[in-house]
Specification:
Oligomer: single chain
Enzyme class: isomerase
Number of strands: 24
Strand order of the largest sheet: 1-3-4-11-6-9-12
Helix content: under 10%
Shape: globular
Order of helices and strands: EHHEEEEEEEEEEEEEEEEEEEEEEE
Family: Belongs to the KduI family.
CATH architecture: Sandwich
Keywords: Isomerase, Metal-binding, Zinc
Number of helices: 2
Number of domains: 1
CATH topology: Jelly Rolls
CATH class: Mainly Beta
CATH superfamily: Jelly Rolls
Organism: Mucilaginibacter phyllosphaerae
Strand content: 35-45%
Pathway: Glycan metabolism; pectin degradation; 2-dehydro-3-deoxy-D-gluconate from pectin: step 4/5
Length: 276
Amino acid sequence: MRVIHSVHPDDLKNYHTEQIRERFLLDKLVQPDAVNCVYTHYDRIVAGVAHPVSQTLTLDTYDNLKAAYFLERREMGIINVAGDGTITVDGQAYNLKKLDCLYIGKGAKQITFAAADAAAAPVFYLLSAPAHQTYPTVLMTIEQAEKVEAGAAETANKRTINKYIHAAGIPSCQLVMGLTILHPGSVWNTMPPHVHGRRMEAYFYFDIPAGQRVFHLMGEESQTRHLLIDNYEAVVSPPWSMHSGAGTGNYSFIWGMGGENLDYTDMDAIKIENIR
């Protein structure tokens, strides 16, 4: 399992493009009939993708975790961003359509992933955090998710925020998770931006059309940097970093956090005029 180490904000000021991509970008996650995970030193979050096509995949443990099984001391959120599929947790099967979410609590031992149709295989995005107690496994469909309308067409940031795992939704130890869908004609996400020093965050971008990209903005508000993001790529955001972006077309992204609290609104706003 690839390991991402923490970066001090002063160091980022001196990074060139390839260093930024190496330290923050999670790419090549989607591989046929494989589970790919990345261990980060930001609140010990693990991010990854399970992409079953013609085989049933099992979530095995990794040497990095020093655990008998993956969720021995962890919890996990999973959102499907492609075709229909099934996740089986200790013998209980859960069917996920596109944009459905499954939370799995600490202590689940056997987790498998399967496609309903190999020609339209699912892409399961996984986010896992350390857990101190067990919460029940819960499936939440996109229709059941709490929805917040944000932004406006006039500022090219009209978007629908779907909340799954949070204080008023699926209960968890520290994981917070949901997804945002940009409306046609809108390209800006999380603008105006913010930071939250109590939590790290990871963005997983999807439904980016072929040939298009998202410019993901990061760094301190007075020392911004950017990453060019392709479809099915993720970026890790340290607690000190703003996280925002604009695409060459509309797209969607999954946001996930781990840290001190489950309060979705725990954030410190950044004024657009202060960004450099």
